[in-house]
Amino acid sequence: MQLTARDIARMVDGELAGDPEQLVTGLAGLREAAQGDASFLASPKYQAAVKTTHASVLIIARDLEIDFGGTLIRVKDPSEAFARLVGQVAPRPVVFRPGVHPSAVIAPTARLGAEVSIQPHAVIEDGVVIGDRAVIGAGSYIGHESRLGADCLLYAHVSLRERTILGDRVTLHCGVVLGADGFGYENVGGKHQKIPQVGNVEIGDDVEIGANTAIDRGRFGRTRVGTGTKIDNLVQIGHNCVIGEHCIVCGLVGIAGSTIIGNYVTIAGQVGIAGHLTVGDKSIIMAQAGVTKDVPAGSVMLGAPAVPHKEFKRVNAAIQRLPETLAKLHELEQQLAEARARLTPVS
Amino acid sequence: MQLTARDIARMVDGELAGDPEQLVTGLAGLREAAQGDASFLASPKYQAAVKTTHASVLIIARDLEIDFGGTLIRVKDPSEAFARLVGQVAPRPVVFRPGVHPSAVIAPTARLGAEVSIQPHAVIEDGVVIGDRAVIGAGSYIGHESRLGADCLLYAHVSLRERTILGDRVTLHCGVVLGADGFGYENVGGKHQKIPQVGNVEIGDDVEIGANTAIDRGRFGRTRVGTGTKIDNLVQIGHNCVIGEHCIVCGLVGIAGSTIIGNYVTIAGQVGIAGHLTVGDKSIIMAQAGVTKDVPAGSVMLGAPAVPHKEFKRVNAAIQRLPETLAKLHELEQQLAEARARLTPVS
Amino acid sequence: MQLTARDIARMVDGELAGDPEQLVTGLAGLREAAQGDASFLASPKYQAAVKTTHASVLIIARDLEIDFGGTLIRVKDPSEAFARLVGQVAPRPVVFRPGVHPSAVIAPTARLGAEVSIQPHAVIEDGVVIGDRAVIGAGSYIGHESRLGADCLLYAHVSLRERTILGDRVTLHCGVVLGADGFGYENVGGKHQKIPQVGNVEIGDDVEIGANTAIDRGRFGRTRVGTGTKIDNLVQIGHNCVIGEHCIVCGLVGIAGSTIIGNYVTIAGQVGIAGHLTVGDKSIIMAQAGVTKDVPAGSVMLGAPAVPHKEFKRVNAAIQRLPETLAKLHELEQQLAEARARLTPVS
Fold first, then answer.
1. In terms of CA atoms, which chain A residue is nearest residue C144?
2. Would you state the CATH architecture of domain A99-309?
3. How many A-B residue pairs are in contact by the CB < 8 A criterion?
4. What CATH code would you report for B3-89?
């Protein structure tokens, strides 16, 4: 990207104040901007960040007075203008053309839909069915009898073990593993004997799963992720879990086996949820919480062991005051001793 | 799977009550069951789950009276009957036939045992030795001079760096990385200078390692995992760790370098263990604990920093009572002030 | 490795006491050593570990008296002697020779530098530029228009999505994913609608990134990692984060989107850092901390929510004393009640 501030001003119908020849080589948020970047101030409340930004060009609201060393471009709605700008200068998205790369290995009994794209070194096993327009990324592995819906997008190095089911428009990022064996053993005479894991994984429509996330197959039956749910990177979901619809599951979350998550649940980063629990609809589990009991619908949970958010705040405030509380207790103790000494002895 | 309740009853020698034509399309635990599933009630103590299950058919004990809207099948031992049923209806396990796929790249000095199966796009480097009947999954990479025992099963996309040693019957799930460099640097004038990592990873017999787990090679010497130990998904084990025999290590656990774990140790999900520690035999480290000191054999540890389980419970109970404790302290303070005011002044 | 204690003594110019024919089959630290290993005692302060080591041969300082059942080798500086020994007996490092393996798939518009090594089944997309002497590991995927500097070393199964930029001498371990889409959605009528992620990932010189770590591409602009920073295994870094120069980021850390980390920052294992925060230069975030606010430069933070280290220690000491504090409070309460009873009633 090689534009001038004047080019940018023209693209967003803005009014330029400063050097029109200022070179713009990138776009970035205010805080992460480097020299040569154009950025924007979405709202006056972020104004403090203008002082420390390294951006060279700043798109701001028409009426805003601001102290900024670089070039300003004034527009009516900075967020909208910046989004429009991103749309215009963003590099063309990569498109994986339909067709089967000759290095891919496709079992004779696999059935490919119309206009699918099978990238180099992909491996597709016997009995697989792939929906129309799906993309199978480079080196990805599609295990036996798996069924993928239409318009699925699998990036490089995805692994689907046998009999995985994907709905339509499922996006799997690099390194996702669906259907590895659940972590189940029986202790027989001090040795951990494997419990066969003969179930599978079923993913609903419009689900997106982040890089290197692993979802285990069911012991029997399925491990399920509902329609519209979005899962971040490096998440671990145990066997026979059921994740509801339209949930958000953030990075490094671990959910142990057979736990049921409702619909519209938000699970923040690094949360752990024990096995065989139920988390009700629309609950929010805050970052790093450790859930050890069922969570009623609509709860906001925090802490390890997790408690309702308000309770956590109340207890945590008391905890932070503990050292001064101990000091006060010590003082009371002395006052009491002194007072008792002054009482006439019991006769 | 397309069976009727009558078919199921016949397969488990059960007594049917309800609709014999009820269609059964899957098997699942009570809580995760969907409509059309058959499930089972292992023990009367889970009876409450019957009210909310979506299962259409339920296998229960002969003598149990229960309120269930679907079809019942009564047997002597529901757990045993269900396991038998799973065994009968489970899809045939996938078998990787012996032979070398033509797309695999195998160094001329590698030695393959009898009846090994080398899947498409696998890469096997110089000096590798692979035991009889081992399976090397699609796209897996076996680094130079690695030695794999008999009957190892490596799924797709496993990476073994050079000189990794696997015992017999080792199972590695998709995306496992063994033998990446340990995380060791020396700070030289403000820069982190890499400490060479010239050791390797050695895995005992009958070990199973979950998807996307990473175990680093030793700085020198080995990082070791003992016979019979089972490791879940997304676990990180640092260089020169020694994990004992018959341990259980759950998902998202991190163990820093040079820590020694005894035998029969259980490490629950998301636990972190600092480096250069020793965890004694048969200890249990509970979920999300942060271990910062040596752990004596037989301990049950919880919390961050981790303390013995009983201590944690005692302290946590006191913590949860903190807000009311502060209120009581405030009350005492007032009572004391009032009492002191009533004492005759010191003359 | 098959040496005798006598061989070892000769290699380190040491003085042997014990069995010169003792076989040495490996090298290891004191605590992780197994039978047949040679080890060393770096300092008398680790002397206690000698009692429990399984090493057969021990390199120690000339003047140290020690109780050890195996063979001793006395030298002036045991650490230096051991390092020298490691250097001599370490297996030859694996070298990936320049050249392009015929199974690699390289787009016609990709440009390869001098002496690059492209390993089997690697895939290199259109418009990629690879610097001199770089190594692209087996099965690795280099997305469209990515640019790699000189002397980069990518191990097997690395995935770089389109337009990733690597500096010189970048090392990426197996399973690293750079440039997967950031985790960004807008809630539109209860559904999570994807926000396009059109930025990229830029990595500075001399960066090393551990196995299965994932760094997401910017929403727009870049996610950046500065020169000299070292990142461990299974780390998750969100979109538009900026990690400074010469930082250390340990295993299983999660950093949410748009957070800015300064230079020379150390982030210990399993730390979580919320999004849109700033962590100042030379800060240390201790293991498992949960950072929820900006961190001033030079801070040492601990706990969840994270507080300065000293405050954490003070509060935690008070917490551990809570049960006895409650007992004391109860005692004071009784004493006070008794004292008040003895006061003459208010007339």
1. A94
2. 3 Solenoid (2.160)
3. 194
4. 3.40.1390.10
Catalytic residue set of B: 239
Which of A181, C74, A76, A204 lies closest to B209 in space, CA to CA? A181
Three-class HEC string of chain B: CCEEHHHHHHHCCCEEECCCCCEECEECCCCCCCCCEEEECCCHHHHHHHHCCCCCEEEEECCCCCCCCCEEEEECCHHHHHHHHHHHHCCCCCCCCCEECCCCEECCCCEECCCCEECCCCEECCCCEECCCCEECCCCEECCCCEECCCCEECCCCEECCCCEECCCCEECCCCEEEECCCCEEEECCEEEECCCCCEEEECCCCEECCCCEEECCCCCEEEECCCCEECCCCEECCCCEECCCCEECCCCEECCCCEECCCCEECCCCEECCCCEECCCCEECCCCEECCCECCCCEEECCCCEEHHHHHHHHHHHHCHHHHHHHHHHHHHHHHHHHHHCCCCC
Q: Name residues of chain B where pLDDT drops below 50.
A: 347
Contact B315 C329 (CB under 8 A): no
| Residues of A whose CB is below 8 A from C162 | 91, 94
What's chain A's average pLDDT? 94
Query: What is the tens place of the pLDDT at every residue in A20-55?
Result: 999 999 998 888 888 999 999 988 888 888 999 999
Helix residue ranges per DSSP H, chain A: 5-11, 48-52, 78-89, 309-320, 322-342
d(C-alpha C16, C-alpha C32), whole Å: 23
CATH class of C100-309: mainly beta
> In terms of Cα–Cα distance, which of B137, B140, B141, B142 is closest to B153?
B137
C-alpha distances in Å from residue C259, one per residue of A14, A38, B241, C279: 29, 19, 32, 8
Residue of B nearest to A243 (CA): B32
Whole-number Cα distances in Å, B303 to A107, A256, A294, B313: 51, 19, 20, 9
Q: How confident is the model at residue A188 (pLDDT cuts 50, 70, 90)?
A: confident
- Residue from C239, C246, C309, C330 carrying the catalytic annotation: C239
pLDDT at A15: 96
pLDDT confidence of residue A228:
98
Domain boundaries, chain B: 3-89, 99-309, 312-342
Question: Per-residue pLDDT averaged across C290-319, rounded?
Answer: 95
pLDDT at A43: 87
Q: Say whether residue A156 is in contact with chain C using an 8 A CB cutoff.
A: yes
User: Residue A339: what pLDDT?
Assistant: 86
> CB-based contact (8 Å) between B256 and chain C?
yes
Shortest CA gap C174–chain B (Å)? 7
Active site residue C239: yes
Q: What number is the average pLDDT over the span C326-342?
A: 87
Taking only the tens place, the pLDDT of each residue in C252-281 is 999 999 999 999 999 999 999 999 999 999
A144 and chain B in contact, CB less than 8 A = yes
The pLDDT tens digits for C123-173 are 999 999 999 999 999 999 999 999 999 999 999 999 999 999 999 999 999
Min distance A37 CA to chain B CA atoms (Å): 28
pTM of the model: 0.93
pLDDT at B344: 64
Average pLDDT score over residue span C239-257: 98
